[in-house]
Amino acid sequence: MLQSLIAFSSLALLQATGMETAAELFEMRVRPVLAANCYACHGESRLGGLRLDSRAELIKGGASGPAIIVGNSEESLVMHAVRRTHERFKMPPQQALKPEEITALAAWIDAGAVWPDGVAAKAERSFWSLQPVSNPEPPVVRDSAWVSTPIDRFVLSKLEAAGLSPVGRADRRTLIRRATFDLTGLPPTPEEVEAFVNDASPAAFEKVIDRLLASPHYGERWGRHWLDLARYADGQVGVTVDTPFRNAFRYRDWVVEALNKDIPYDQFVKAQIAADQLPESAGLLAGLGFQAIGADNHERVDVSTRVFLGMTVGCAQCHDHKYDPIPTKDYYSLLGVFTSSKVDEYPLAVAAEVDIFKKQKLGIEEKQSALADWLNKQILEVVDILAAQTSRYIVSAWTVMTGERGDVFEAANQDSLDSLTIGRWIKYLRNSEKDYAFLDPWFALVASRGAVQ
Q: What is the Cα–Cα distance from 251 to 392, expressed in whole angstroms?
């Protein structure tokens, strides 16, 4: 009787909160929580003998017994774990669930633990980045008078849930500064501020936004965020010599231009993955710079999936990914696609000009190589000369160190040596923090004779 009453109360709670059925509660509030926090360890990997990706498995439980008791959340092991009241299990281990998530899970168990499809739920079904775009209903808010647009309801609902209320409206000078910094990264000019302050028309702010969106600085401001995701650099990072990507700037400029032209997002994505395969490739080929600036194919797989799928796949090189829904098999299938591709160049100039450029570039590289060889040869010759004069430099340095000569310049003039090198030898010999065992015979000889003759 008590369990029936609890289940009835839970269903009443669902209806009162706008959810018509327990199935909707599960799909909207429970399955996403389980997928995001539980399936990585308690899915196919069955950590501790426990799976949480089907109703049958939840009831069956693992080594510690059933995970849930249908209709009785208070006695269910999973609830003690997520409430962190169990003496051993406190789940998820990294961070506790939100209070509203715990409440929804308890209500679902008390209402009968309805699992609509009755089969194991794969993690990818609820993975956040793989969900289709939806059009949710704006939430109900208490202070509806504050709302000007449907978006305001989403903002206000979060504020009200946190016990906060909106601040007062910004004055016009503050408003235009915020909008200008946000959209272009630059402050408004005094003239722009005054024009907005003195514009009493209802569309004054709308005109400001249209002007800012039409500014080339808009693409520069927001393009940098995408370039960070694309790991953009003008050259290879982490090397000891300059290794520029000669045409990397073309990809950077293309991203900025794409934002300023408001290219549809699906076209923006396709251009960076396979612009050379698109029938409308004109003006999109530079988007392939996304692939060309990578170090190797493993990096291309990792960055492409992070940016376009919202998931990490690097761990799947060695084992099925623990947190993101990708097995090793899928990783190497993706790697095969990238490995079968090659980096190529699409000249923007006519063939004759390209040939002239390549010929001149080859000549410059040959001259640079010859110059580098000559410099290395000169360096080695200087090293050989200085090495042959080591004994002379040590003796000359010692005369300065013992006071026989006033300074390095006097010693250099009398011994026909380089004063700078003598100074370096003095600094080297006076370094008491190092043990120069190979010089012990020298110091012993000098000590026995008192001075260098």
A: 58
pLDDT tens-digit series, residues 329-341: 999 999 998 888 8
174: pLDDT strictly greater than 90: yes
Q: At 142, list the tokens.
A: 């208490």
Q: What share of the chain is helix, strand, coil (3-state, %, to 5)?
A: 60, 0, 40
Tokens of 220: 């520069």
Taking 50 as the threshold, does the pLDDT of residue 373 lie above it? yes
Q: CA 272 to CA 79: how far, in whole Å?
A: 45
Interacting residues of 452 by C-beta distance below 8 A, sequence separation 6+: 395, 398, 399, 402, 404, 446
pLDDT: which is higher, 427 or 10: 427
Angstrom distance (rounded) from CA 319 to CA 326: 10
C-beta of residue 250 within 8 angstroms of C-beta of residue 286? yes
Three-class SS of residue 436? coil
Bridge partners of 244? 235
**Which SS3 state, helix, strand or coil, does residue 236 take?**
coil
Distance (Å, whole) CA 423 – CA 429: 10
Phi, psi of 117 (to 5 degrees): -85, -15
Phi, psi for 50 (deg, rounded to 5): -115, 130
Collapsed DSSP state (helix, strand, coil) of residue 244:
strand
* Tokens of residue 170, six digits: 């910004």
Distance separating alpha carbons of residues 412 and 392, to the nearest angstrom: 11
What would the two tokens of residue 13 be?
A: 């709670």
Three-state SS for 212? helix
Q: Is 65 helix (H, G, I), strand (E, B) or coil?
A: strand
Helix, strand, or coil here: 404? coil
For the residues 185-206, what does the mean pLDDT come to? 96
Cα–Cα distance between 316 and 332 in angstroms, integer? 9
C-alpha dihedral, 197 to 200 to 203 to 205, nearest 10°:
20
Inter-helix orientation angle 248-260/216-229, to 10°: 120
> How far is it, in rounded angstroms, from Cα 281 to Cα 267?
10
* Cα 359 to the center of its chain, rounded Å: 40
448, with CB counted inside 10 A (0-12, 13-18, 19+), is exposed
Reduced to 3 states, what is the DSSP secondary structure of residue 377? Answer: helix
- The angle subtended at Cα 322 by Cα 319 and Cα 327, nearest 5°, is 50
Q: How many whole angstroms separate alpha carbon 37 and alpha carbon 34?
A: 5
